[in-house]
Amino acid sequence: MATTAPxxxxxxxxxxxxxxxxxxxRGETPRPVLMGPLSYxxxxxxxxxxxxxxxxxxxxxxxxxxxxxxxxxxxxxWVQIDEPVLAQALPQxxxxxxxxxxxxxxxxxxxxxxxxxxxxxxxxxxxxxxxxVDGLHVDLANAPAQLTAVLDRVPSYKVLSLGLAIDDTDLxxxxxxxxxxxxQPARRRFGDNLWLVGARWLADLGGLLPDLRPERHACPxxx
Length: 223
Fold this sequence. Notes:
By secondary structure, this protein is α/β, with parallel strands linked by helices. The protein has one domain: Alpha-Beta Barrel (TIM Barrel). The protein is about 40% helix and about 15% strand. Strands 6-5-4-3-2-1-7 form a seven-stranded mixed sheet. The termini are far apart. The N terminus and C terminus are likely disordered.
């Protein structure tokens, strides 16, 4: 599925809440996935990145705050916020908007995992690493060379989620033997705060769709 921004947040919000409630009813622990507010505004423009789109940020942020509040009432602990635009060069107005938006959203309930995929963070690594969120997901499937820089910049008290290339026949088969050596520095630095997930499946979710898979599908690094 291509990553696109929905034009009607209210419709997708209700769908999200309904699916989370159904998952909770089945005894699952969902981690809902939402398109982040800045990527939503960027992608919703015919000429992506139009600075005029930022005028809508103050309207959109309270909507996200209300979504987080409703998810918390349903017993959700973590929410994944997809911001794929951080994988490309951004005008200064947009990087400043990221800081402003996430400093506001930090006061909303839920633990927040900021997810970036489709390429390396490059010049936006410092920005993403220090936004007031509880974790950062980065794409190693498409940009494996960024791991060293990510380990240098992301604080170890946060969750670091690494998107790995997984065999097409089983997106959740973790071939730890082939990646253990490369991931040893990450394991030493982050310990239990290190998550491994299938990057391709995360990217395919892009949009206001919930992750209804149980936590057991995440692949922890063993010692």
